[in-house]
Each structure stands twice: as structure tokens, then as C-alpha cells.
């Protein structure tokens, strides 16, 4: 059995100025995630709109959106929204793998924390140490922007999710991902390298 319970096909969209965006049919619904509301409400609105690339067995939703201009990466938004009601896969993996009908378990020990990897190379957006080109945001905190050394490809984003939230003693899902050499170039500034940051695989210049 795979980990995905539902998925949407990838949708390319032509943009102005020799650009295009790659995402999913419910991309317009992501504005819900930016509003100051209870996380459970945000999650339900995104789920109802099927605003995700894939939905996993424990209800977690994965979003991946990339925008390119003139052949170069301009922006990406890679988000993970765990279910606020179901127990995480890591807590009860065998229940999900054996029968998803028994997955209605509320975990009182683990707090679901959404996170995002954002990248934005548009002119006027970058502000060193304040708004890094690539950054990691935890828990929907508006000003949480932990610098990341480089943008992430879909492969490395999925690897991050599987390796940190779905590995168990018997299932090492990240090891089954295809190996490829596609990487984006480093985007972190020298000053941002001097503070706590996240190291991502990157192409050498």
C-alpha cells in the first residue's frame, strides 16, 4: 500500500513575461492558509477545495507550486499541512497500512505543525536576514523565516517529509524515491550563513 490516499494532477499555467507556473487545480484556495484563523478551519477549507498535490493516509496534505521565468526559477511554495484530528502516521503506522477505516484516532501527545519552504527571487522581495530568498516557516508564524541555503526540488521536499515524519523501524519510504541529479543553485547570503539556517542540497556553481 502507498502512503497517498488522494492526489491531483499537475497543472501548468502560462504566465506573462515568458513565465509559467506549475501547481494543482485548487491553487486559488491557498489564500485560506494565510488568514488569521484557527488551524483546523484552514485545514478543512483546503481539504474541501482539494487544494493539494496529494493527501496522505493520515490526512496530511502536500502542496507544491513552482513559478519559472525565462527558464529560471522565480518562486516556489512547498507546504505540508498535517491533519489536526487524525493521529500522525508515525504514531500508528500499522493501523494506516492495514486498514484506513481504523484511522479515526485523535492523538493527544503530538501537536500537528504545518510548515513551508518558500523561495522568492522577485525584485524587491529579498531583505537580508529579514526575508531570505529561500526560507523555512514553521506553524504559520508570520515572521518565521529560517534561512535555507537553496530552493528545493520536488524530490528533496518529498524526501524531507518522508524521512522526518513517515519513517518507522520497518518502513523507510524515502529510500524508495528515485535518484536524480536535478538541483537548484545556492541562494543564501553570506550574512544568513552566519546564523542558524537549513542546509539544502544545491548545485555547485
Keyphrases for this structure?
nine-stranded antiparallel beta sheet, 9 strands, 14% helix, 24% strand, 205 residues
Please explain how this structure is put together:
The termini are far apart. Strands 1, 2, 3, 4, 5, 6, 7, 8 and 9 form a 9-stranded antiparallel sheet that branches. The chain has helices at 39-48, 93-98, 154-165, and strands at residues 4-7, 11-15, 19-23, 54-56, 61-69, 72-81, 115-120, 134-138, 146-147. It is an alpha+beta fold and 205 residues long. A hairpin with a 3-residue loop joins strand 2 and strand 3 (19-23). 14% of the residues lie in helices and 24% in strands. Residues 99-108 have low confidence and may be disordered. The protein has one domain (4-194). It is globular and about 50 Å long. The protein contains 3 helices and 9 strands; from the N terminus they run E-E-E-H-E-E-E-H-E-E-E-H.
What number is the mean pLDDT? 85
Unreliable segments of 5+ consecutive residues: 99-108
Largest sheet: 9 strands, antiparallel
Helicity range of the residues?
10-25%
Taken in chain order, the helices and strands follow as EEEHEEEHEEEH
Number of separate domains: 1
In terms of DSSP E residues, the strand content is 15-25%
Overall geometry: globular
Tally of DSSP β-strands:
9
Radius of gyration: 17 Å
Structural class comes to alpha+beta
Q: Counting H and I runs of at least 4 residues, what is the number of helices?
A: 3
